[in-house]
């Protein structure tokens, strides 16, 4: 018998599960309420944190900007000097009294009352040579003084910073050397005159430690150190000639060091600083400096003191062209082209090129292969050997004549 209750669409047959009705959609107002509650909780938390921060007790360990009770720190003791430091310190103390500044001063009278005014126009370095107070420096340091004696003067500043007028007593432009002395009216006390110790440049070794003391860029009594980088370097002199046997060093040498001493580790003079190599016209030190060797300095300075000028050693020989000589298959030595009439070589019987009257052929001159035991295989080596000679002394020339070697003694002349 059927029921008269209506049957709905979602009603299942009897015995089958009925579907759960879907929940109604949430109301819009409820969502907004929930969001507002969450926002309020966040704001309240932030307020609590902020109030806690602002009401926290003040710190008591903040360091003030100043401290009236501050005291100087205790210093650590200095470690003992090592051997290299002690060597440098002792050397500077020893040599310092012998090193000087050489300033070039312009003297003029200006104003309505012609009051004297002085202005420094140049500066270099130098050192005391002997007990008489003679001073050695570079020629190019004092060259302007010689050209303008009416306006310029040399002034020597000692290690104690006292300044004294000085006179130029001799120059050697070919060797870039000059000798000064204190002016008679302005000599320092004798106990302030401390001559430098003199060494030799003949036994120097590449790699040997050296020191330079001078007045670079106006910084008085500056000391630098380095090594001998090379030997027998040619140096161009202010006169355009070549100074042979130059010492190359990497000790820092700058403008103002000119004329100052190059020293070995015991403080002996082994050279006079004279030039630097630079990459620009007015550049400074790049690690290549040059010094005139002490043996050359000793020879030239002695002549300047004796004569006021140098007598150049002269053998009275003119050499044959070296390139032509080599093309003629002479593999060593230099050949005499001609000799000065009645000169040292001619008096010793040496021969130059000559015309054989019988064969009408030019015969070779004597081939010089050594001077005083020093081998001579080029014009440069010949000039170096001759420069080492002294006028009035004798020199032994080993020559080859007609394929036979022989020694000839020549009395060195001077010019």
Give a description of the structure.
This protein is 20% helix and 33% strand. With 415 residues, it is an alpha+beta fold. It has three domains: 95-192, Trypsin-like serine proteases (Thrombin, subunit H), CATH 2.40.10; 209-307, Trypsin-like serine proteases (Thrombin, subunit H, Beta Barrel), CATH 2.40.10; 313-414, Roll (Pdz3 Domain), CATH 2.30.42.10. It has a six-stranded antiparallel β-barrel with strand order 1-2-3-6-5-4. A six-stranded antiparallel beta barrel has the order 7-8-9-12-11-10. A hairpin with a 5-residue loop joins strand 4 and strand 5. The chain is elongated.
The CATH class label of the largest domain is Mainly Beta
Helices, by number, come to: 7
Averaging pLDDT over every residue, what do you get? 87
Q: Describe the sheet with the most strands.
A: 6 strands, antiparallel, barrel
Global shape: elongated
Q: How many separate structural domains?
A: 3
The CATH homologous superfamily of the largest domain: PDZ domain
CATH topology of the largest domain: Pdz3 Domain
In the predicted model, the low-confidence regions spanning at least 5 consecutive residues are 1-17
Which CATH architecture of the largest domain? Roll
Question: What is the number of E strands?
Answer: 22
Radius of gyration: 45 Å
N-to-C terminal Cα separation, in Å?
164 Å
Based on secondary structure, the structural category is alpha+beta
Lateral strand order in the biggest sheet: 1-2-3-6-5-4
- Beta-strand percent range: 25-35%
Which H/E pattern describes the elements?
HHEEEHEEEEEEEEEHEEHEHEEEEHEEE
């Amino acid at each position: 018998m059927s029921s008269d209750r209506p049957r709905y669409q979602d009603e299942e047959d009897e015995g089958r599960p009925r579907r759960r009705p879907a929940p109604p959609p949430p109301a819009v107002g409820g969502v907004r309420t929930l969001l507002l509650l969450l926002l309020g909780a966040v704001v309240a938390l932030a307020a609590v944190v902020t109030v806690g921060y602002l009401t926290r007790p003040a710190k008591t360990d903040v360091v003030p900007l100043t401290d009236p009770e501050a005291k100087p720190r205790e210093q650590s003791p200095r470690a003992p000097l090592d051997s290299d430091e002690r060597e440098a310190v002792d050397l500077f103390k020893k040599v310092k009294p012998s090193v000087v500044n050489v300033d070039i001063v312009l003297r003029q009278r200006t104003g309505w009352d012609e009051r004297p005014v002085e202005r420094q126009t140049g500066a270099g370095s130098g050192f005391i040579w002997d007990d008489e107070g003679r001073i050695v420096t570079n020629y190019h340091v004092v060259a302007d003084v010689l050209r303008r004696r009416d306006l310029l003067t040399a002034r020597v500043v000692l290690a104690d910073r006292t300044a004294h007028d000085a006179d130029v007593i001799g120059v050697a432009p070919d060797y870039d050397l000059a000798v000064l002395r204190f002016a008679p009216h302005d000599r320092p006390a004798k106990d302030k005159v401390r001559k430098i110790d003199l060494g030799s440049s003949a036994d120097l070794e590449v790699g040997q430690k050296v020191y330079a003391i001078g007045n670079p860029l106006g910084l008085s009594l500056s000391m630098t150190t380095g090594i001998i980088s090379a030997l027998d370097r040619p140096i161009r002199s202010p006169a355009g000639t070549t100074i042979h046997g130059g010492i190359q060093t990497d000790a820092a040498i700058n403008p103002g060091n000119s004329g100052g001493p190059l020293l070995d580790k015991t403080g002996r003079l082994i050279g006079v600083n004279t030039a630097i190599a630079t990459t620009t016209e007015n550049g400074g030190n790049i690690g290549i400096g040059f010094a005139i060797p002490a043996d050359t300095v000793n020879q030239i300075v002695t002549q300047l003191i004796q004569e006021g000028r140098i007598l150049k050693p002269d053998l009275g020989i003119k050499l044959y062209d070296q390139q032509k000589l080599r093309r003629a298959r002479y593999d060593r030595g230099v050949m005499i082209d001609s000799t000065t009439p009645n000169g040292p070589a001619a008096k010793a019987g040496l021969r130059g090129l000559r015309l054989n009257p019988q064969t009408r052929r030019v015969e070779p001159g004597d081939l010089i292969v050594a001077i005083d035991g020093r081998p001579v295989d080029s014009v440069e080596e010949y000039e170096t050997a001759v420069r080492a000679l002294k006028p009035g002394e004798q020199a032994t020339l080993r020559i080859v004549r007609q394929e036979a070697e022989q020694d000839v003694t020549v009395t060195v002349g001077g010019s």
